[in-house]
Amino acid sequence: MKIITDSLESQLKQVSQRTAGLTDPKIEASVREIIENVQAKGDQALRDYEKKFDNVDLTSFRLSDQELTDALDSIDDDLREALEVAKANITSFHKKEIEYGFVDSEKPGVMRGQKVISIATVGLYVPGGTAAYPSSVLMNAIPAKLAGVNRLVMVTPPQKDGINKAVLAAAKLAGVDDVFQIGGAQAIAALAYGTESVPRVDKIFGPGNVFVATAKKMVFGQVAIDMIAGPSEIGVIADDSAKPAQVAADLLSQAEHDKRSRPILVTDSINLANAVSDEVEKQLQTLPREEIARAAVEDQGFIAVLPKVDDMFTLMNAIAPEHLEIQLPNPTDYLAQIKNAGSVFLGRYASEPLGDYVAGPNHILPTSGTARFSSPVGVYDFVKRTQFIQYTSDALAKEADYITKLARVEGLEGHARAIEAREEK
């Protein structure tokens, strides 16, 4: 791996110059055409696109409840147990995120409050192709159901040999209400606008390729979206106490996702930097997804060497990684120094894949530096809040002059008169 020993200021400048890739105008035009076609032709457009892009002729998009049950029954016992352990841990963690409203009656004659309301219908996009991510189904669906979402609609690209059984099993375990075999930008359009078969949803979750991401951007406003997911990232802060083989393995655990993934080590030890670099090369040679991981390591990854622990955290906070491992003695001592990270893994035994699968905290995290202002997916993403106010006549009278004064300062005479119309002469 590339080892950088520049000053902190130089490295911070390089990080600040990083920009998210712009969407290709040709892709935008193609996606816009797909969305408009789905709006105009509904199910027929979906059939045409699935034939064109996935080489599958579909007469029905929705899978039956029995097909989901059969998928769950067909997986081996070890996989089912792993899914159920993950479900239990995800549930126990996310239950603690459930929000409740409040009522405030601190002043005589005044009642104020907030009501937490679940989003009624949510769409979940699950990528298809060679990769299958049943864990991501659990990570989205379980918080949705804990939030009280009434209808959770999952879409996933059709496959000639059928949709991956583990994905369908996870959907059944997590309580997904409907599964439709449609993918790509056309699936996002169907969720946003509805068709004869696919219900219109209120918010769309889940990652996808550049066409899916572009479609999500374009339908935002018609529906809400969770985020625009970028390539996976892992940052590791470590010193000489860390084991090079473990650090290298953790970096490669994310590098194997995508050629654009970003594996980053920040350390105060040039000895560790060299050892990890050597170990990464050694492990790459036996990694099944070597081509993908090697491209990520060579094009996106680096090891930064800085003299002080405070500098290490300053740089990593600027990077704002999706995953952050702290491999330092007494790692919990450093929690206060972490300002920007999607999910934090403390100590040698909290390897990043622990969070991917069974620990319970969500693995759907902000990427591309958006941890500066975004959070992991949680129950709070599947609810909205509304507020309420009630005043008695006496309570309104005490504050009426303040309201009319502010209204007239803003040039809104109608606002002032609406209050004065309630004055009891």
TrEMBL record:
Its cofactor is Zn(2+). It is an enzyme of class 1 (oxidoreductase). Keywords: Amino-acid biosynthesis, Histidine biosynthesis, Metal-binding, NAD, Oxidoreductase, Zinc. Binds 1 zinc ion per subunit. Substrate binds at S232, Q254, H257, H323, D356, E410, H415. Zn(2+) binds at Q254, H257, D356, H415. Pathway: Amino-acid biosynthesis; L-histidine biosynthesis; L-histidine from 5-phospho-alpha-D-ribose 1-diphosphate: step 9/9. It catalyses: L-histidinol + 2 NAD(+) + H2O = L-histidine + 2 NADH + 3 H(+). The active site is at E322 (proton acceptor), H323 (proton acceptor). Gene3D superfamilies: 1.20.5.1300, Nitrogenase molybdenum iron protein domain (3.40.50.1980). Its EC number is 1.1.1.23. The keyword Amino-acid biosynthesis applies. One of its GO terms (molecular function) is NAD binding. GO terms for cellular component: cytosol. InterPro entries: Ald_DH/histidinol_DH, Histidinol_DH_CS, Histidinol_DH_monofunct, Hstdl_DH. NAD(+) binds at Y125, Q186, N209. The keyword Kinase does not apply. It holds the Pfam family Histidinol_dh. GO terms for biological process: L-histidine biosynthetic process. NCBIfam families: hisD. Belongs to the histidinol dehydrogenase family. PANTHER family: HISTIDINE BIOSYNTHESIS TRIFUNCTIONAL PROTEIN, HISTIDINOL DEHYDROGENASE HDH. Catalyzes the sequential NAD-dependent oxidations of L-histidinol to L-histidinaldehyde and then to L-histidine. This is Histidinol dehydrogenase. It comes from Paucilactobacillus suebicus DSM 5007 = KCTC 3549. The lineage of its organism: Bacteria, Bacillati, Bacillota, Bacilli, Lactobacillales.
